[in-house]
Amino acid sequence: MGAAGNKKPKKPGKKHGPSYLEEEHEVPVKNNYAKKTK
User: Fold this and answer.
1) What is the CA radius of gyration of the chain?
2) Average pLDDT over residues 4-21
3) Residues of 13-38 as b/e, b for ≥16 C-beta within 10 angstroms?
């Protein structure tokens, strides 16, 4: 849940572009990290 909060301010709103691709890759990485911290 914390990762989602951090991701909101990170994405300015431009979904069409390289940022969108980077976010997709960050999702699984952050999800795994959150699971390990918990």
Assistant:
1) 11
2) 57
3) eeeeeeeeeeeeebeeebeeeeeeee
What whole-number distance in Å separates Cα of residue 23 and Cα of residue 15? 9
Q: For the whole prediction, is pTM greater than 0.70?
A: no
The structure tokens listed for 30 are 């952050």
Is the pLDDT confidence value at 18 over 60?
no
Helix (H, G, I), strand (E, B) or coil at 12: coil
Query: 7, 23 in Cβ contact below 8 A?
Result: yes
